[in-house]
Predict the structure.
Amino acid sequence: MIVARALLCLATFLVPGTLGFKTLNRASYTRLPTSINSNGADVFQGINYAAADGAAYDHINYIIYVIGTRNRLLHAIDVANPSSPLRILTHQFTEHEGNPQAVDVCGGRLAVALSAHVDVLEGHVQFFDVVARGSSVTDIHPDHTLAVGAHPKDLKHTPNCNMVLVANEGRPGKDDTNQYLNPEGSITVIVIDRNNDPTLRTIDFQQFNEGEANFNQNIRTPSRYIPKSVYSGTTTVAQDIEPESVVISNDGRYAWVTLLENDAVATLDLRTYQVTKVSPLPKKLWDTSPVDCSDLDGGVHRRTYAGLKSMRQPGKITLLQIGSKNYLITADVGGVTSYTSALHGFTWTDTITARSLVNSLMPDLVELKTQMTDNGFLGRLQVSTIEGNSLFDPRYTHVEMFGGRGFSVWDSTNMAAPTFDSEGTLEEYMDSYYHFLFNTDYAANRATTGSPANDRDTSSENQGAFVSGLDVMEDNGTVYMVAGTHGPGTLFLYMLNTVSTQPIPEFQSITRSGESEDIWNTLYTNKQLGDLRISDIGMIPSNQSPTGRPLVFVTATGSGSLGLYEIIDSTPIIPIVST
């Protein structure tokens, strides 16, 4: 087992007032079963079985709950000794109950969001009592099961535990009669009274439909571009809005919801149960910040492109309050919108290779045309078909890729521009410290022949090593943030300078667990795969930690694992860059 760590050595990145750096030290690694057989025994089928898709921490009992979406499992893991976690309980949801998508813990209550076995139908939220550490219970049973919107993707309690917000993504697909259905995206608000009895309210996005007072043509709605020759029906804005992740203010008055496919963030007033605004996010420019956009360029080649932009398309979102101001931090994931005959009854997508758009460029974009013709530059980059031109002129003035390949910090009252943008620095750190794993990712057809090292650069033409997990916390006056990448499974640790009126992330270290030279399947068998395809990150402050030291937990859907890390002091390491 190898846990590799690297720290930035340049003095310009030192945190003011400190003498050293912080880094992550892995305490333990737990591989979770991909299924349970009829005899109740664990089964480990392999990579990418979605055995660890999200987690929540109960700081009273030192238990982390981990959900597996595909296997419909919920695990309770005792982490009182972080170096030796103990799985004390596994609960199996039935097919009728659905597939767990999100989990949260608050005030002795465990909440799990479940999508229906037919994804377009209503989902549910189940509430359980938490498991007491040392308890002899072998299973748990829900106290309440409540119907919510279709495909509930995320849920969060308010800080006082009296309310739960559920982000219902409303994914389109076929219903149980094989008919196409596109449910509206929505937010379910569950209010829990002092007798622990819940009531529900639904917040929809119908006020943003065309013809309504709040219609905004700048809200990205890709499905409304489907040609009538492909799909003859009509898609409203409310149907095309797909809530992804939710965060709530410390006073419980406001919430913010990322709308990944729509490249926007919605603001909710929880006193009036209204969406007060949907804020389309500004584009990210790559004319001064280098980025690697090709998997066929012979290695790592980060370049600037004057005619290239990207949508941010935020996934995970977290919040930091400084004084009375709320700052949002978003993981700028990216994501295409695609329809297939099998799942939807027709075929359409909003993505295409940049090379395919060469003849549709404005004629004066000579340099961009040359770059888009070359597969070693932009030729294989996945770009949007519905950005960069207009209804009045089909020619493209620029091309836009999916996702920002990093994270952004926002003043919650002004989403017109981020207060901080990681730009291309995550790729820069990967290139400097993990050059041999730059933009690596797993592919099923490489399970027995490829390896993390051999498959370097394979995601550069898509969304790169995008941030798929993110969290922030304050611990004894220090604010930490961890961002985790999907394919490489790298963890970036920051300290946030809050001396000024705006938080400034200051890079501390980059960490990756696991080996890299053996083939993928061998690494999985030997429990050396690391945090492949990070799905969730949570941070545990010292006063809630079993050790009295700050901890980080990481779930990874590719490796089906739970990783535990300590934040420790460390000495800077000078990176050795190979070619």
